[in-house]
Amino acid sequence: MIMEKVITEAPETIQRYETLKELGKEFFSATPITQEGVIKPPDVQLIKSFVSEAITQTGPEVWASYLEHVVIAPELGTRIAEAVSATEQHVDSNLIEGLLWLHDIGRLVTPGAYFRNDLIDLRLLREFGFPPSLTDHMFRLDELLETADSLAMTEDQISFKKGLDERQTALAQAYFDALSPEQRIINLADNLGKRGEKGIFGIDEFMRYLQSQEDRYEHTSRWPSVEWAIERRQQGAVLQAFVIRQTIQWLSELGVDVESIMSGMHDYGPRFIVVVRHGELDNQGRLYNRDSVMKPEDIVHLNETGQLQMRSIGTLIKTRKFRVNQILHSPQTRTLESAYQLNISLGLPDDAVSGRDDLDEVFAPGPYKENLTMKEWVVLHGNCYDEKRWGEYHHEPIDKITQRGRDVFWQTAAGMTTGEAAVLISHGDPIAWMLNSVINDEVPDPEELRQKIYPNKGDGFIVIIGPDGKVFSHYTLTDKSLPKGTSF
After folding, report:
1. Mean pLDDT of 320-349
2. Sheet with 460-465, side-by-side order of all strands
């Protein structure tokens, strides 16, 4: 009954759920996962690819810490599992890594909810065709909360001022003993596989995190089942603290040094590049190019909508807690103005905002010099790369545009530390050539460029760079309360 009520009536929530359901069926049908009930090494890579595509297709409204957690937790679980398997205790490391990649996909559906996310995780895996032999190893929040409720804690115990008594400790220990080794490791990696101020969580930081969880989740719900969970959330935190300590003790008795493993992952995690196209312009239907190509009176500026788009992107970045350390922008007036408006929301110091020639508009003066209108340009699909049509104007070639875009992208990424983000503000075509090359290793036909990854004015793209230095996933960052930006 609970499972039937975890999806709200919000159309976007339902759509995200249906998107993930169909995507999972497409990825996992006719695989050993669904047919044999096992996760083999190639299946782990398949699961990772699914998560990457799921992020792209849902465009999640999540904090940056979620995206860090998605990457960190599977690696932490794998390293612990490998250390355990080196002892007399065997665990299935592929199962652990695979389920940890999938354990939080419910947040792609309902980013800020408590309890619903966990129920959606399980429901989706069943929709994909995962058998109980796999899903039974997921750590179940509902079972944790039911056990915590049975402990009948006092207010002092709930607030961590007083420990569990003998009866409660016995019940908590029985709950822990019933967990499989895989469940214990998955739960530990889930809870410690988060990034704090000094790297991934230590035990003390995790305990402080548990005690502050009331500040991170929704406090109301229309569903009685979720309200039941919210009422027991603080009791669950106390039991979770017990389970984590017991898991670490169990691992220590096996000879596994969890603190050493975590120390080895101090700098492990993703980095983020936020690529933004300038906002809407006050060009009144006229074509434009670089400032240097145009008459001074024709240089284009952001209109009120464009200014709002940029401030909105900045607000989204800040609200979702991406740690931006720099804003780089094209030298054109419209992108300089975009950087200024975006930084109104972010509040970076002036020396963190600078121009980069690598982000410049395509040098393509032909259409402007021939006085083409925007309507005529749309008919030509915005293709300024046809040598026969534009050869006399010596337009910038595609390979040069693509290479400078790749250079600034990867140079920026190399200069960031784990967990940091940088914003690159550029123009439609340069962004498209950059992202199609960086993400898909593809240089599209110019006639089809706008059918590939292509930004509308005011669009942002979050590009997640994994610990291996490769693009893990990407998604569009837009304020859905604003009208969709224009492509041309």
Report:
1. 98
2. 353-355, 323-329, 420-426, 271-277, 460-465, 471-477
